[in-house]
Description:
By secondary structure, chain A is of the alpha+beta class.
Amino acid sequence: MAGTSYKGSEITDVDQFLTDAEGLASAREKEIGQHIGYRYDVNLVPDYDRITPFLKDYVEFMGWDDLNWLEDVHMGYEEGKPAVFDRNINGWVRVPDSISLPDNQQDRDMIARELLIKFQMSDRHPLVTLRKAYTKF
Amino acid sequence: MASVSDAELKTMSQEERARALGMMTEQLTSRSMFIEFKPGEEARFGYPWAPDVDFNKRTEIDADAMTTTEVNAKIRGLMREGFGTIVVKNPRGKHSLGVGILSRLNLIFEGSLGYFGTGLIDGPNVRINGRVGWSCAENMMSGTVVVEKNAGSTFGAAIRGGDLVCKGSVGSRTGIDMKGGTIIVGGDTGALSGFMMQRGRMVVCGNAGKNLGDSMYDGTIFIGGSIRSLGVDAVEAELTDLDRKWLTRKLTQYGLMPDKGVDHFTKVVAGKQLWNYDNLEPSEKKLIL
């Protein structure tokens, strides 16, 4: 059933979901006990002035001129912890406490992209085992 | 799991392999499995199974007398031999060419493709010096696809990442169900473009047909020309400086930058009035991401 207005809440602070893991701000969210929508701005386009040397090397290796699919990768927040969504396993991968977070989302997104590449290309990624089990050709 | 060798796995059936590797014993708990990044993880740029190709090693395939399966198998074989630039001559509108390529590669088609060309790709740079049929690059994960002429309907259906560019005009339902990535159209786009869009960006330098962004949940559409009508829950939004910077960079990259700049683009986003996720479990929400 279609709604008549947006019932969720706005993201106002970069640390919002680190300090408030539940994220129940709007009346509707409090009523249902669940945050509505994403915990980060999925439409935020990257600021290329903040790209890291590792990411520059990655896009050069792939033969691209920009971040390509990584433009859709952001630092998210899961249960009050920073995490990155890995589409290849359809799940969140946690950022360890030893990594300190910058004070802005753009720099956090660059860290998220770097961590995700290293994880996806590693031998410990679950896709490696999945391929062993199910690959057909 | 570690005690099972590759040699032992080769002697097993698929079901036995899956059990031996722990695939069918996991209990689903509707929560994320706990995985943490390792800060000191070795830096590698390609998937462990990706062939090691060299962009400077070039070869050609004449697809004239070959079937689609033969052409696609030939491309894979050449990648295993290390060829990083492959030119396919005489594709003659065959369907499903260049699909399922999961590593870096320069792939050039000297001609037009039929339906579902370059679908399910994850990494390659593809140039098509002709036209494409329906659903070009559907379910694309990453890489770039540049079509020099026009494209059919459902261009970039369910795309999840990468840049998909058509320098001409495209049919209807462009980017239907797109979940990420960037679709760029140099000309016009047909009706119901961005239908059920969930995230990603669509840039159309020309005009858009009826019901643009109908039932879109998220994502952004930029239109340089006129919009025949907006769909349900699609609303106009303010173009930010970051948007302008990103548009300028992206359009310049593909030689589609309009002479008058990007200030005239209309930005369309979801009004979020269709957001009724309240009754969904968190694990179901993730399927939408």
